[in-house]
Amino acid sequence: MTDSSTQPHLLLVYPSTHKLGWARYFQLPSLSLKQVAAATPLSWKVTLADELHDTVPLDENFTLVGITAMTHQATRAYEIADAFRKRGIPVVLGGIHPTVLPEEALRHADAVVIGEAEPVWETLLEDLLHGKLQQTYRAPLPGGNRLTIPWARREIFDGKRYLTTQTLQASRGCPYDCPFCIVTPYFGNSFRYRDPDEIAAELQSFDKKLTVFLDDNILGDPERAKPILERLKGRGLRWGGQANLRFAEDPELVRLVAESGCIGIFVGIESVTGLHANHPKTANGSSQADLIKRIRDAGIVLEASIIFGFDDHDESIFEKTLRFVEETVPSLPTFHLLTPYPGTALFTQFDQEDRLLHKDWKRYNHSEVVYRPKLMTPERLYQGWLEARQEAYSWSSIFSRIKANPRSLFTNLAYNILRKGPNDSLEKDRT
User: Fold this and answer.
1) Which CATH superfamily groups domain 166-430?
2) Does the pTM exceed 0.70?
3) Of 14, 161, 277, 340, whose Cβ has the fewest other Cβ atoms within 10 Å?
4) Is 193 within 8 Å of 223 (Cβ atoms)?
5) Can you tell me the mean pLDDT for 133-147?
6) 247 with 255: CB under 8 angstroms?
7) Please, are residues 316 and 369 in contact by the beta-carbon 8 Å criterion?
C-alpha cells in the first residue's frame, strides 16, 4: 500500500519510436495524457516525460506510472513499463492499442484502461492508494450527443517546446465507421459536442492566439459546430483542426469557419477513385475539386490526406492521384500507406485472409507496408508511395500550389517547406 503521508506522484509517459530532431518543435502535446492529467485530483503531483523532448526517469520513484500507446508506440511502451515494474513501481497502460488488445498490454502492466480515461481514472487512483488496484478499468461505451470533459492541466508541458500547448477538444465520436478507423467502435457512433459556452470559457484562459482543435471531425455535425464557430469570432484567434471535406458543401459554413479564425484544416480525401473515394460527387452535385476550391478561396490552408493501398488500387493509382492533386490544388497533399490497425474491421479482414506480413507493431506507422495488397506487390506499393511523395514535393509542384493559393501565400510556402523536409529525409533513408 502507498504511504498516504506523502504526496502521491504520477509520472505520465509519451513513448517515442524515433528521433525527430528540429521537427519535434512543430509537434503537438499528447491529447490523451493531457486529459489524464486533467482528470487527476490536485492532491497528486503530476510529471510528464515526453520522449520527443525528455529522457524517461527510469531510476526515480513514483507512486504510479501511466503510459499511453498508439499501435506504433506499443513496443516502446512495453519496454518502459517493464523497466519500472522490475523496480516494483506499478504501471497502468492506456490509449488505443491497450484498449483494443488489453490482454497483450496486461503482460506488461499492473492495470489497463480500456476506452476513455476520464470516467474511470479517479476510481483507479483511489483503488491504487487503498491497495485494491484492479487489472482492467473499462469505460462505458459513449452515447448521447453531449461531451463533458475536464479542462486541461497544461502546466505539465512547462519547459517543453511544442508548436502550441493551447490544444482542446470540442467533440468526440463519429457515425461513419470506416473499416480502417478505430473511432466509431471505441469512441461512439455519434458526434458528441461540448457546450459552446464551456469551450469559449476555456479559450478565454489561453494567453496566445494559436489554438489547435484535436477533434477527429470538428465540423462533423454542422448545426452543432456553428454555435462554437460563432463564439470564436472576434477573438483574434488563429486555429487549425480536422474535418471531413463534406463540410464545404455548405458555403455559409465555409464562410463561418474562415471568419472564426481558421487558418488551416486537415481533411481526409482517403482515395481519389473507386469504392473508397470520399464522395466524388456530393448531394448537391459538387465535385471534390469544387469543395477544395471553395475552401482555398476562403483563405484557409487545406491539407488533403490521401491513402494508397486499398483493394481496388492497382499501379495506376499513383499517377491518378498525382493528376488529381494537380487539378484540385490543395494547399498540402499528404500521402499515407493503408495500415490495418488492430481493432479495425480492416485488420480483422486481412488477418482472416492471411494477408498480414507480420505483427511488428512499431512498423504499423503509415510509412511501411505491413500487408499484401490485392493488385500489386508490397514493394511496388511502397515504391509508388515514395515516388508520389517526391513528385508532389518537388519545387515545381510546390510553386504551382503556392501560385494557386495566393490568399495564404506565405503560410502555404512555410507549410510546404516543412512537408518537403521529411520527404527528402525519407528518400535519403531509403538510399
Assistant:
1) tm_1862 like domain (3.80.30.20)
2) yes
3) 161
4) no
5) 92
6) no
7) no
